[in-house]
Write a structure and sequence with these properties.
- It is a single chain.
- The chain is of the alpha/beta class.
- The chain folds into 2 domains: about 220 residues, P-loop containing nucleotide triphosphate hydrolases (Rossmann fold, 3-Layer(aba) Sandwich), CATH 3.40.50.300; about 80 residues, 2-Layer Sandwich (Alpha-Beta Plaits), CATH 3.30.70.100.
- The chain is built from 10 helices and 15 strands.
- The longest helix has 14 residues.
- The chain is elongated.
- The two termini are about 30 Å apart.
Length: about 300
């Protein structure tokens, strides 16, 4: 089942095409990373999905409901904006109690305690005004999770956080995998690589790539090998003479080569090292990072 499905979704602002023919599908129970440079259309997409902006053309189906015809699906959606705002004089428990009152959550005391426990704020009694940015993000997630939604939409949930705050928020998001469907936009590629099952990459309002991270890395894998020996200069001369190379780079204390036949190369490198009385210190097949893929597809479209 697809929790989010868009069909030819477009959003125009005068002369600007913020979204153009967006066809996106997010299966149930996964963590989906929505990537793109600033201004690519990520926040516009979220606003349309949440019925905060009307599509110019096309539509989207959230939990099976057409967003043009119904807003009932919003009861099953939790949302965290990029910069959540709070009443600083509340404690976390008081704030969630206030939210529960205005949204009509059933059995609020039990649900509030469960949610505070989930985000690691159950024992926090201080006022929100004293919270760190990471604690506020966790409280924002608690607010989004309070109604026990099926879909969680997060807009840049780790932006401006320090490393510890990012780790806490990412660990929390990852813990929801399988129980909730999580759709989050970001431009921090390492966050996505760490916790996401599937990604979509947006550029200038167009979806240019969508697939699982595993499939994307396979598709963009280059046959690159990193080698470290005790005499790089000597080895680089010999390897140029011996192996058919597509690419060679000396970086720090390593040689990185790109070849057409990886198995042949892995057989020949040890022979070459022994023949030239060198010491092999490291031999590694390099996998592409998500950053490598992102830069390749966004610069080539």
């Amino acid at each position: 089942m697809s929790v989010i499905r868009t069909e030819g979704l477009c959003k125009y602002f005068k002369d600007k095409k913020a979204l153009e023919e967006l066809n996106l599908e997010v299966p149930k129970g996964i963590i989906f990373g929505y990537l793109g440079p600033n201004g690519a259309g990520k926040t516009t997409t979220i606003r349309v999905l949440l019925n905060l902006a009307k599509p110019t053309k096309g539509t989207a189906y959230i939990l099976g409901e057409d967003i043009r015809k119904s807003r009932n699906y919003l009861r099953k959606v939790g949302f965290l904006p990029d910069v959540p705002n709070f009443y600083n004089f509340f404690t976390a428990r008081e704030f969630l109690s206030f939210i529960a009152d205005i949204t009509g959550i059933e059995n609020p005391k039990k649900r509030i305690e469960e949610t505070l426990d989930l985000v690691g704020l159950k024992n926090e009694k201080s006022r929100i005004g004293t919270y760190s940015r990471g604690m506020k993000q966790r409280l924002g997630l608690a607010q989004a999770l309070l109604p026990d939604p099926e879909l969680l939409i997060l807009d840049e949930p780790t932006s401006s956080l320090d490393p510890q705050g990012r780790k806490e928020v990412l660990d929390l998001i990852f813990s929801l995998k399988g129980n909730k469907t999580v759709f989050f936009s970001t431009h921090i590629l390492t966050d996505v690589e760490r916790i996401c099952d599937r990604i979509g990459i947006l550029k200038e309002g167009r979806l240019i790539l969508e697939d699982s991270i595993e499939n994307i890395k396979k598709r963009y894998r280059k046959r690159r090998v990193l080698i470290e020996v005790d005499n790089l200069e000597k080895f680089s001369d010999k390897i140029k003479e011996t192996l058919p190379l597509n690419f060679l780079e000396i970086k720090d204390n390593s040689i990185i080569i790109e070849v057409s036949d990886i198995q042949y190369t892995l057989r020949e490198i040890p022979k070459l090292i022994v023949q030239n009385d060198l010491v092999l210190e490291r031999l590694e097949i390099l996998e592409p990072s998500l950053e490598d893929v992102f830069l390749e597809v966004t610069s080539g479209v």
